[in-house]
Design goal:
The protein has 192 residues and is mostly helical. The chain has four helices and five strands, in the order E-H-E-E-H-H-E-E-H. The protein starts with 21 loop residues before the first strand and ends in a 6-residue tail after the last helix.
C-alpha cells in the first residue's frame, strides 16, 4: 500500500471516508475481469459484478488501462460474412430457377457483402491503432497503477504525492474520468 502522510497508511476514500473497501486499480480491474468471466455464462452482460461475494466493482472496461485488442471473433465474423457474400449469389445462380422470391439470396448476399466491407474496414483500423497503443502503454500503466478504487463508492482516487498533473490529491474521480486521465497519459485518444 502507498503511505498517507507520516503514518504509512493508505488514505481512506475521499468520498465516504472509509478504507475497508479500497483496492488498487490493477486489483479491482483483475477482480472485475475474473468476476465478469464467471458471471457472463449465467447473468449476461451486467454493469456490476461481485468480488469475493462482498465488494461490488464496476465493469472491467471502465477501469481498462488501454483500448481492447482486436478480438479473434471479429476476424471470424469477417470470414463468415465473406463466405456468405460469395456463397449466396452462387447458390442463387446454381440452385434456383430464378423465380420470384429467389432474389432473397441476392439481397442476403448484398447485405453480407456490405457488412463484410464494414467489418474489414473496422478490423484494419483496429490493427492500425495497435502500434500507437503499444507505444503509449508504459506511460498509461504508470498512471493506472497509482490509482485506488473504492468499492463502496465506485470512485477512483490518487494518494497524495502520486497524483498526475492536473489532479488534486484525494480528488474522487468517476471511473470514466480516471480512464480519461490514463488514456491521455498513453496518448490513445478519447475513451469510447
Amino acid at each position: 500500500m502507498i503511505p498517507d502522510g507520516d503514518d504509512d497508511r493508505l488514505a481512506p476514500c475521499p468520498r465516504c471516508g472509509y478504507g475497508d473497501s479500497i483496492l488498487s486499480v490493477p486489483a479491482a480491474y483483475s477482480s472485475a475481469r475474473h468476476g465478469e468471466a464467471a458471471a457472463r455464462v449465467s447473468r449476461g452482460n451486467e454493469v456490476k459484478v461481485t468480488v469475493n461475494a462482498a465488494l461490488p466493482v464496476v465493469a472491467a472496461r471502465e477501469l481498462a488501462m488501454a483500448p481492447a485488442n482486436v478480438v479473434p471473433e471479429f476476424g471470424c465474423l469477417s470470414a463468415f460474412l465473406g463466405i456468405a457474400a460469395i456463397g449466396a449469389p452462387i447458390v442463387y445462380e446454381i440452385g434456383t430457377d430464378h423465380q420470384n422470391g429467389d432474389s432473397v439470396l441476392l439481397v442476403a448476399g448484398a447485405i453480407a457483402g456490405l457488412l463484410l466491407v464494414l467489418s474489414v474496414l473496422r478490423l484494419s483500423l483496429a490493427l492500425a491503432r495497435q502500434p500507437k497503443i503499444k507505444a503509449g502503454k508504459p506511460a498509461a500503466e504508470a498512471v493506472w497503477r497509482l490509482g485506488w478504487y473504492c468499492c463502496r463508492c465506485a470512485v477512483v482516487y490518487f494518494q497524495a504525492r502520486d497524483e498526475p498533473a492536473g489532479v488534486t490529491p484525494g480528488q474522487p474521480l468517476t471511473p470514466a474520468q480516471f480512464k480519461h486521465i490514463v488514456w491521455t497519459a498513453g496518448r490513445y485518444g478519447e475513451p469510447a
